[in-house]
Amino acid sequence: MRTLFKVVLNCVLIVAFSLAAQTRTVGLFLNDAKSFRGYTLFAPLRSNTTYLIDNDGKLVRSWQSDYQPGNSVYLLENGHLLRTGNVNNPTFTSGGQGGRVQEYDWSGALLWDFEYSSNQYLQHHDIERLPNGNVLLIAWEAKTFSEAIAAGRNPALVSMRGLWPDTIIEVKPQGASSGEIVWEWHVWDHLIQDFDATKPNYGNVADYPELVDLNFSGNNQPDWQHVNAVDYNPQLDQIMISVHNNFNEIWIIDHSTTTVEAAGHAGGKYGKGGDLLYRWGNPRAYKNGSAGDQKLSGQHDAQWIEPGLPGAGNILIFNNGTTRRYSSVDEIIPPVDANGNYARVSGSAFGPSATTWSYVAPNLNDFYAFNISGAQRLPNGNTLICDGPHGIFFEVTATNELVWKYINPVVASGPMTQGDSIPSGQQGQENSVFRSPRYAADYVGLSGKDLTPGAPIEKYSTTGVSDFMNATPEAFALQQNYPNPFNPSTLISFQLPVSSHVTLKVFDVNGREVATLVDGEMTVGRHRVPFAPSDLAGGLYFYKITAGKFSQTRKAILMK
């Protein structure tokens, strides 16, 4: 009969922490086994740096720019970073300013630096890389007070700053800093108004849901639509945009048109030129509903759920809920047929009348992101959510169980020290983030890349005897009190002089994680963690314990 050995890891951390380091305020808070494993990308709005972290909250890669984001960032299938940059254009001063699109390779080299900014136009909020390599940009274009009135706008709804209707342009990158505009669509080409019969675009708004009511507005601010998201569906060759200000809608248009067709009302795959194919969220915007029919309020990040994912083809929307004071993530099934045509009963609103899935906090008031923010459906059916103004990323299951949570630790001055309070900013906290997309470990853009995790982004207090980050292993009196091998189980014990977030994981010889024994906050004192690997073959394994920024790995042999 074989003898059962116990391997006891006696981990004594003799460093004196400051009290601030004992209380977690930023970084990783939860990493449940139900979380989808991958790499999360984010660009703090007060920083020039873009970060890629793993599910343990460890930094894998970062990119440095000369510009703060304006606002979105993406990891492309070639492993490059595509990001927006805020050039601080003095003409267009609304939230979401951009003006620049940059592409960096994995090493951080700047490959393309395209500016779309003048006193007549400005890129803002979001971009979308198309399968052909071109990039869709949202942009404001300036219309003067006179131009707005001449089109049929109510003068009471126009200031001397004029009006900034939105446009979508498609840019073909050329060289290091140039681009050719190969396609464009303008809201200004698709108007209807019932204010002034002597002006163009006059008609009954309710009869033309495919057009945009020029006078649907509650104020005279120039940022009329404030489009904040753009998405592309390659199967349908359609573009979806999130129309925030006043409208509280999502719009879908035909991308198969030529630029000339996109300016008119006929042509393209769907025969409607650049008119709206579908709209949803607030039927009052086209006078086919009442206040009780409004579904969206200040929404962001409208997108089609990608093929192969749970809910594929449905539309996912971050519904900020600015009029109800709580947020939700809503999934709807659009009334679309296999050919990309949207059904609607004449004289009524576009469907659906209800969502097919929604996430809200158990206590509604606990989740309210009043601006920015986004959500993403993950391959395992979970949904990753970015509470933008508070810099919080969290993941929920289809049954709304919280399984991962991380708080961005980067503010205007750089990475925070664990335990410090997050400063307040003008539009939320200083650690605000527009979105936080996650990429699977097998994402093609990560193939062949060095994904070795480093330390967490946040800093830790070094008050006391020694530098907690750089102390040698001997300084911690790390001892293995009982011999290897073990069969068939082991008991790992360690002593914590202060409360700390602890992870204890087991890896095989290929570096694959085979077990997570601890991942969470632990109190002062001695802890014993059993490991009974009944499903593992005999051989060499490694177990790694991390507490704060102290990390140590030991090997163990499993005899079977």
Model description:
With 560 residues, this protein is mainly β. The chain folds into three domains: 34-66 and 377-450, no CATH class; 72-371, Neuraminidase, CATH 2.120.10; 461-558, Sandwich (Immunoglobulin-like). It is built from two helices and 39 strands. The longest helix is centred in the N-terminal third of the chain and has 6 residues, at 145-150. The chain is elongated, with a radius of gyration of 27 Å. The relative contact order is 0.16.
- The coarse silhouette is elongated
Q: Structural class, please?
A: mainly beta
Q: Which bin fits the share of residues in helices?
A: under 10%
Give the domain tally: 3
CATH fold field value of the largest domain: Neuraminidase
Summarize the structure.
The chain is an all-beta fold and 560 residues long. 2% of the residues lie in helices and 37% in strands. It contains two helices and 39 strands.
Question: What is the strand and helix layout of this fold?
Answer:
Layout: E1 9-10, E2 27-31, E3 38-42, E4 49-54, E5 59-64, E6 73-75, E7 81-86, E8 99-104, E9 110-115, E10 121-129, E11 135-141, H1 145-150, E12 166-174, E13 178-186, E14 191-192, E15 212-213, E16 227-233, E17 238-243, E18 249-254, H2 259-262, E19 278-280, E20 300-304, E21 315-319, E22 328-332, E23 357-359, E24 374-377, E25 383-387, E26 392-396, E27 402-407, E28 410-411, E29 414-415, E30 424-425, E31 428-429, E32 438-440, E33 479-480, E34 490-496, E35 500-507, E36 513-522, E37 525-531, E38 539-547, E39 550-558
Parallel strand pairs: 14-15
Antiparallel strand pairs: 1-33, 2-27, 3-4, 3-32, 4-5, 6-7, 7-8, 8-9, 10-11, 11-12, 12-13, 16-17, 17-18, 18-19, 20-21, 21-22, 22-23, 24-25, 25-26, 26-27, 28-29, 30-31, 34-37, 35-36, 35-38, 38-39
